[in-house]
Amino acid sequence: MTTTAFLGLGAMGYPMAAHLVRQAQASGGRTLVWNRTPDKAQRHAQEHGSEAVTLEGVAQADVLFTCLPTSAEVDELISALAPQLRSGVLWVDCTSGHPDAARRQREELAAHGVKFLDAPVSGGTSGAEAGTLTVMLGGPAEDVDAARPHLAFAGKVVRVGDTGAGFAVKAVNNMLLAVNLWAAGEGLAALGRSGVELGAALDVINASSGRSNASENLIPQRVLTREFPVTFALGLLAKDAGIALDVVQSARASAPTLAQVAGLIRAASHVVGPEQDHTAALKLLEQMNAQELK
Known about the structure:
Blueprint: E1 3-7, H1 13-27, E2 30-34, H2 38-48, E3 51-52, E4 63-66, H3 71-81, E5 90-93, H4 99-110, E6 115-118, E7 121-122, H5 124-130, E8 133-138, H6 141-147, E9 154-161, H7 165-193, H8 198-205, H9 213-223, H10 234-250, H11 256-272, H12 282-289
Parallel strand pairs: 1-2, 1-4, 2-3, 4-5, 5-6, 8-9
Antiparallel strand pairs: 7-8
Helix pairs in contact: 1-5, 3-4, 7-9, 7-10, 7-11, 7-12, 10-11, 11-12
């Protein structure tokens, strides 16, 4: 009977932890939850049957998941928890973290006999709720194999390389999200200024070679409706874009398009607000073009 712990009950972590609870209930295990604001952990326990614990209580876990805003918050938890964890514990970090941090964190935890995997996820809050997230894992194959049975929130699990590779792929993936979103917005702004009806234009684009998730889903559902529901914050997209540029620099690669869009997303975060939904980056583009996308 495995005891799992989930630390970080944000928009993604809250439903992800619920899937762990259902798996544990089926196998006779336990699921511990912790959040910086204890009330949220207590609410999760009441709604889903997890066990809200203090950081000291997390030391009971065999498998420990974290899902936090940045690697810096994970560093804080490692400093607090590492001396208390049993040798052999598996730490699976679902944060969209930094590859350099992953390598350092694995080394720090290894000194305490704890294994570490970077395991960021993709699929949004809807994927977290449905249990269909894609998990990109970085770390030794044997550790990845040990983690697989516990990824109850996943629909697709892929080992993408050694430690840090998961975070690298996640950052580049989100950078491509930003590129597709911004490029589609630029094209639609030009069409709007030309008098084209944007809904009709998207009908054509989405049946043609220019389609993307941004054109098929994000822009019709969030931008044209003017709803911009906050599921993934613009500030976090800007953070991930910055990590993607660090990956480019570390690889001594050339990526001028990524660099330019990363700067635009960073500017949008400053102008529109980091707490806004990532699709609200196009509000800056609307200001640049004096053209609302609707």
